[in-house]
Amino acid sequence: MADTTTADTETRILEAAHRVFVRRGVAAARTQEVADEAGVNKALLHYYYRSKERLADAVFLRAARGLFPQLLQTLSSELPLREKLQAAINAEMDALEASPYLPGYILCELRADPERLSDLIHEVIPVEALRARVFGSLQAQIDAEVEAGRLRPVTAQHLLVTLMSMLIFPHAASHMLDVVAGLGEGAQARLAAWRRQDLADFLLRGFAP
């Protein structure tokens, strides 16, 4: 019973932290706000997670375990290239919609402590083994499309960086897009719907001969 109670409390804290991070961002969030959201006192929160950094790590790992394995499995699958890109887009957008704070958090951590972020990612996935599998599978499909005259020569890395940039940047820069480009919540939602529906074709047309 004690183990169940502990697990329930930890889950409640993680889910509360996730909501607070979405609203405030990791940097601006306060542990007291997380404790209030979870319905626990601050001392209990610190019993489970000694600092906001450890709590942020735990929330990141929880979200990453729901994203990276599925995304990498999709990219290394035997799906045809167009279907593979569409499945990857769906998986990434589902994850970004569920955890919209993640892009900003990752960018902050890349600047502040890139080695720590690298260690966290290695906790979730066997990076080196999957890198060869993902890029090998994707490159073979690209090369076949090039041979058939449907794509210009491009590396799998270039294709993926372009794809992920177009998916992640609008989430990471949503406030800037609102202020500078006048893209409010409704306009950004319409753009997100376009990315989900048309981005795979847009990307492949961009690399067409």
Short description:
The chain has 209 residues and is mainly α. It has helices at 2-24, 31-38, 42-48, 52-75, 81-98, 102-112, 114-124, 127-147, 156-172, 174-181, 185-206.
Strand and helix map with partners:
Blueprint lengths: L1 H23 L6 H8 L3 H7 L3 H24 L5 H18 L3 H11 L1 H11 L2 H21 L8 H17 L1 H8 L3 H22 L3
Helix pairs in contact: 1-2, 1-4, 4-5, 4-7, 5-9, 5-11, 6-7, 6-9, 9-11
| Class from secondary-structure proportions | mainly alpha
And the CATH topology of the largest domain? Tetracycline Repressor, domain 2
Question: What sequence of helices (H) and strands (E) makes up the elements?
Answer: HHHHHHHHHHH
Rg, alpha carbons: 20 Å
> What's the total helix number?
11
Percent helix range: over 70%
- What percentage of the residues does DSSP assign to strands (E)? under 5%
Return the CATH class of the largest domain: Mainly Alpha
- Number of beta-strand segments: 0
Intertermini distance: 63 Å
Q: Quickly count the domains.
A: 2
- Characterize the overall form: globular
